[in-house]
Specification:
This protein has 398 residues and is α/β, with parallel strands linked by helices. It folds into four domains: 157 residues, Molybdenum Cofactor Biosythetic Enzyme, Chain A, CATH 3.40.980.10; 59 residues, Molybdopterin biosynthesis moea protein, domain 2 (Alpha-Beta Complex), CATH 3.90.105; 83 residues, Molybdopterin biosynthesis moeA protein, domain 3; 73 residues, MoeA, C-terminal, domain IV (Beta-clip), CATH 2.40.340. Helices cover 19% and strands 30% of the residues. The protein contains seven helices and 26 strands. Bound molecules: adenosine monophosphate and magnesium ion. Adenosine monophosphate (AMP) binds next to helix 4.
């Protein structure tokens, strides 16, 4: 059976980023940049003060100890002209450094009296001056394609005068849940029925990943019904189905996709949970057939769909971040499939501790509740013992 690593590589070879579009900077949060962005000007645009204080020439004050106050430079309205030798200018944070000055002495370090300013402490030339272009210079590449635009990046681009950016399109993801036993939330389940919780789980997870979700109606376990909804779902940038992808008599997803021209990438991967997962394309649209069991659907989303979405959305960092943690309980190894365990991370003395959930069953929805990470237990691995250091895949930052 295919390994997780080979399956993931196949996905990443198949999928490429969606087209780019121009958006206003204010709408770019969480998107991946599609082009280099260069600074439109120097930042700061002029030498200016980092403190409220007095601008002066360091050599002057060293000689005289006290200077005449020539005027004021404030943010938005600088001191006009050159400051004569032996004089100083009162200056506010962010105000342009007047010509003739090279240093700012903070208000805390001066005595101001009768139109003169005396300095209490030794002064070093250049103190508290922010120089033109010291942060970035006109034409400098500030951010590169694939960069995730978070608040810090957005602030930087605004400071550089970038009002519009080219970003990759947000993936539109169709979500098709299958199963005769499923009822919509709000409908009281009859005998043998359960609520379609996968729809809510995956839709939430997709939104957390910045995708636009296109929920489809529940497909009954009949080819005709399934086919109609699959055709609708294939209009999206990516289609996810859940359920109906194992070996049962009513598992019709694979066959129905094949009748629509599926190019199968893989079906079944040597992992637990999530073995029956399917991946392929129908024309250009990537399709994931996730197992119906909630924890298996959630795990395969994390292991396969998330990297695919990151690639589609144009991000440079596709793989889940990892961190090291101390295992708090012993975990049995030796399986014939790579195991992924949900767990919680807690912090102690600057170290993370990973506690596997005691509900790992693929049918459970509680195993992943509050989980922040997945622990991989490789095929044939010896037992992992309590106290051992392990590497976990992060879902949420703890
Ligand atoms: P299947 O993969 O279709 O054989 O489903 C496996 C298990 O997952 C069964 O117990 C289903 O009832 C359950 N299941 C399938 N789809 C969903 C869903 N959308 N929400 C919650 N449970 C589901
Ligand atoms: Mg089913």
């Amino acid at each position: 059976m295919l390994s997780y690593e080979d399956a993931l590589n196949m996905i990443l070879r198949t999928i490429s980023p969606l087209p780019a579009e121009d958006v206003l900077l204010a709408e770019a949060l969480g998107r991946a940049l599609a082009d280099d962005v260069t600074a439109g000007w120097d930042m700061p645009p002029a030498d200016n003060s980092a403190m409220d204080g007095f601008a002066l020439a360091a050599d002057d004050i060293a000689l005289q100890g006290e200077l005449k106050i020539a005027g004021l430079s404030r943010a938005g309205a600088g001191f006009a002209g050159k400051v004569p030798p032996g004089e100083a200018v009162k200056i506010m944070t962010g105000a342009p450094l007047p010509a003739g000055c090279d240093t700012v002495v903070p208000l805390e370090d001066v005595v101001e009296e009768g139109g003169r300013v005396g300095v209490q402490k030794p002064v070093r030339k250049g103190d508290h001056v922010r120089y033109r272009g010291e942060e970035f210079q006109k034409g400098e590449v500030l951010l590169q394609p694939g960069c995730n635009l978070r608040a810090g990046e957005i602030g930087l681009l605004a400071a550089a005068g970038v009002a519009q950016v080219s970003v990759y399109r947000r993936p539109r993801v169709a979500l098709l849940t299958t199963g005769d036993e499923l009822v919509d939330l709000g409908v009281c389940p009859g005998p043998g029925q359960i609520v379609n919780s996968n729809l809510y789980l995956l839709s939430a997870r997709l939104q957390e990943e910045g995708c636009t979700v296109l929920p489809l109606a529940i497909a009954a376990d009949r080819s005709g019904d399934l086919r109609e909804l699959l055709v609708l779902g294939l209009e999206a940038d990516l289609l996810i189905t859940t359920g109906g992808v194992s070996m049962g008599d009513y598992d019709l997803v694979k066959g129905t996709l094949e009748s629509l021209g599926l190019r199968l990438g893989f079906w079944k991967v040597a992992i637990k949970p999530g073995k029956p997962v399917l991946f392929g394309t129908v024309e250009k649209t990537p399709v994931f057939g996730l197992p119906g069991n909630p924890a298996a659907a959630a795990a395969t989303f994390q292991l396969f769909v998330r990297p695919a979405l990151r690639r589609l959305a144009g991000f440079r960092d596709i793989h889940a971040p990892r961190c090291r943690a101390t295992l708090t309980t012993t975990v049995r190894g030796g399986g014939s499939r790579q195991m992924f365990l949900w767990g919680r991370l807690s912090e102690e003395d600057g170290h993370y501790r990973f506690t596997p959930s005691n509900r790992q069953g693929s049918g459970q929805t509680r195993g992943m509740q509050q989980a922040q990470a997945l622990l991989s237990v490789p095929i044939g691995s010896p037992d992992l013992t309590a106290g051992q250091e392990v590497e976990v895949m992060l879902i949420y930052l703890p």
